Amino acid sequence: MIKFLSLLLAGLSLGSMYALVAMGFVIIYKASGVANFAHGSLLLIGATFVAFTHDTLGFGPAVLVALLGTAASAFLLQFLFIRPMRTASPIPTTIVTIGMDILLLVLLTGLLGEGLHELGQPWAGDTVVIGDVGITVNRLIGLIVAALLIVGFLVLFKRSAWGISMRAAAEDPEAAALVGLRLGRVTATTWIIAGVLACVAAIFLTGAPTPGLSPALWTVALVAFPAAIIGGLTSVHGALVGGLVIGVAESLATGYQQQLLFLGRGFGIVVPFVVLLVVLLVRPEGLFSARGGRRV
Amino acid sequence: MSDRLQKWDSRLLVTRALAVLGVLLLLVAPLYLEEFWLRLGFTACGAAIGALGLNILTGAAGQLSLAHAFFLAVGAVTYSWLAGDPDPAIGPTGLGWPPVVAMAMAIVVTAAVGLLVSPISSRLSGLYLGIASLALVFIGQHLLATLSGITGGFQGRSAPTFSVFGFEFSNQSELLVLGVPFGRYERLWYLGLLLLAVSAWAGRNLLKSRHGRAFRMIRDKELAAAVSGISVRRGKQNAFVVSSALAGLSGALFAIAIGSIAPVSFSLDVSIQYLVMIVIGGMGTVTGSILGAAVVTALPILTQRYGGVFPLVGDVVSPAAAARYLYGGALIAVLMLQPRGLAAVAGLVRRRAPSNSASEARPIAGGRAPVDPPTDTDALERKAPIT
Amino acid sequence: MSPQTAAPLDIEGVTVAFGAVKALDDVSFSVQSGHVHGVIGPNGAGKSSLFNVISGVYRPSAGEVRLDGMALTKLRPHEVAGLGIGRSFQNVDLAGEESVLESLLVGRHDLMRSGVTAVMLGLPRARREEREHKARVTEIADFFGLADHLDRPLHELPYGQQKLVDVARAVCMEPRLLMLDEPAAGLDEAETDTISEIILDLRSALDLTVLLIEHDMGMVMKICDHLTVLDFGRRISDGTPSAVQSDPAVASAYLGTGEAAEIETGTAP
After folding, report:
1. What's the pTM?
2. Beta-strand runs (E) in chain A
3. Which of A177, B94, C97, C159 is the most buried (most CB within 10 A)?
């Protein structure tokens, strides 16, 4: 039972990171109509900023630099590559994000090289025990920060001018343009927010129990994509639920891998994708997507 | 009119002549080229067959898929396992089937796997498939590592030499053609060309048929396709299965080219490379698949071999990285600049279809040429269905 | 199998709701076999929703649609099409790069039988089927005056002819019921006359029932045998053009929309 609870807690923490990534992915989908396959690279950018600056600046300022840097990178990607494609249909634009990802990944892999990089989190590998349940300080802080960010984000999405414009634009871009919404600005803001969310997730995903930053972080980000689809791709709340479901499922499968050995070693990594296929088999449009009465 | 016709005729003649010349050059190439080029050629032929498969699915039917590496893996494993040595000195056993049968089975089994996942894949619309298809790559990697009795696990397994009715595509038996020794790669060169020619012909037939038209209609206007009597699910399923079958053959050829298979050869990166092939070459066309496969296959190998010629390559960026910069950049450039030369890109990169409200006020494009009055009414009558 | 004949269509108590909004509210009417039947009404009256219900794109929350007695509401769009319902679209948006011939052949999809393997291997029966259907499509194109343009990419044609191609594609399905969604929208007077003539000729040459949404009242009054008027998702009038014209409910529905004068005089704006 204690094992189960600690796995659950670890899973929720991991899931909250996935949720941050997936929510960014979903708002980009809503704003630009593309699946942003360069999202993994955004995480890498964020973590790389911290890894390369924390020695000289200290961890706090390094995080600040990383947040600004990732936000700026996300904005630039949108401005340079996605904005010019706004009259194209979604699939070519999505393939452009794959092209961005190829370029960013080869650039960042070159920068990072083979070894692991420390991000210099002050809490390092400490663990705490709550009741009988243990968790790394990194994951605990991550969970708290993510929870605050998610609440803040949801409020922003519901109340702020950006959130309202964004939802209006996703409903009906033409009407939104007619009433004078500056769609370009809304879209740019969206990418910047997604970049910030990705950067925060990256900082905690590279901390304990993960030993540090390597290009493998990119793959971790891919695991968050199913979270977005499970939630229904257009639903911010869906992305949150999807992230948590996948985080918990992965954590449990990894924790009980001795009992799951018949499924093969390292099954935990595949679990998010198995969950994804099961959900899609039952509901092809995801759990939270509102699709009209159309059927083809 | 006749003037235009003539011009068109002569252009056709030139195209034909160039095509014949090209084929002749390809046929005599093994007499002159060294092994490096022949090997590259065979690899490119195999890749072109796989790219054709993806192009039918993504280029023609508009279904973005990143699962191609998974289907290549299924083909490669099926071939290697079925044709493998039943009693090898090292590594996992095989079934010892004749390689030709194993290759045919690679196609059949991979198509069947494609059919198996189509209850999910053919019901997904838009970008859902693109993301969901990631699942197959990751699950595929897991299976490759886990089912080690068949796949050889992390180390992989060797892939048997190809042979047809006792004629081996290897250096074993000696064969001289016009004084040139025809070894493994000379022989494989022709195998690759033959299989590519057959696949390209079949692919072109498909794209010109009712099914090809249905694919494009599903891609461009799913709703209108359905209302025109096209079963959208069935169409997507057809595209998926054909795409898988070609990937299966391509995977088997890959195994033959390398002589062994391992999980790393079928990672997500490979799926992306195939996507790059069809975008650079031209979406939805057979020629595009072949050109794109040739470029993407050759790039890393050529930068490896000749990279030193260019500044930076080697010291600042590795040849492999240089190739990735090149094709990543090319991918974006082709999509953003839409050069007219790549015919089918235009089909996908069309302006977004205007929604109802906008188009009501849309001015009439192309002027108001009067519609020709209908000709003889009696000419049209209801006919019994063509059987 | 003998050639099919025109089919009657019955719409009974059809309701379509999107959340709280009812696009169609308990709409019933019948389309007689061989009639040219017009559906008119102000913008947002539910005309397009009605077409979508008949084609199987929307599933109504209540009600039934029957073609020649056969219930359609449980069928998927391509199955409805397979029963003999051809439909043209208000917005011409056929695949732009496709040639006119290919666009028309799309309408033959369900009438052709060759499987994927047969076409890939270029089997003689697949080739023969393609040839025969091309011949029939050429006949239909000829009727529409499109025979000279078969090999041209669709987007090269002027708008009026693109609309004709869309109607012709629906006719290529050999339908028993032809549904036309604003075939004259965006056309000038001469073109409108031409399409009117084509519709009447098609009806008699091919023995079809025609269901027509159109805003051009002149055209509607001229070619329709029967009219159904929708407003806010409800059927407000149903009858012969002259009966509908004098129905006070219709006049008040159109009042203030600027179309009131049209319906009374039966002229195009």
Report:
1. 0.88
2. 127-130, 133-136
3. B94
User: Is A287 within the bounds of a domain?
Assistant: no
Q: Is C63 helix (H, G, I), strand (E, B) or coil?
A: strand
Which of the residues C91, C171, C216 would you substitute to probe the B interface, choosing the one with the greatest number of B C-beta atoms within 10 Å?
C91
Per DSSP, the residues of C165-209 read: HHHHHHHTT--SEEEEESTTTT--HHHHHHHHHHHHHHHHHHT-E
Residues of A in contact with C59 (CB under 8 A): 293, 295
Of the candidates C261, C4, C26, which has an alpha carbon nearest to the alpha carbon of residue C111?
C4
Host H or E run for residue B161: none
- The ipTM, to two decimals, is 0.90
The answer to whether C56 contacts chain A (CB < 8 Å) is yes
Token pair listed for A277: 């296929």
Residue C74 touches chain A, beta carbons under 8 Å: no
Question: Which superfamily, per CATH, for C1-84+176-264?
Answer: P-loop containing nucleotide triphosphate hydrolases (3.40.50.300)
CATH 3.40.50.300 holds for C92-173: yes
Question: pLDDT of chain B along its 387 residues, tens only?
Answer: 455 555 566 777 887 888 889 889 988 888 888 888 999 999 999 999 999 999 999 999 999 999 999 999 999 999 999 999 888 888 888 898 999 999 999 999 999 999 999 888 888 877 888 888 999 999 999 999 999 889 988 888 989 989 888 788 877 777 777 777 777 888 899 999 999 999 999 999 999 999 999 999 999 888 899 999 999 999 999 999 999 999 999 999 999 999 999 999 999 999 999 999 999 888 888 988 998 999 899 888 888 788 777 766 666 778 888 888 988 998 999 888 864 334 344 344 333 333 333 333 333 333 333 444 444 544 576 666 665
Residue B103 lies in a domain: yes
Contact C143 B366 (CB under 8 A): no
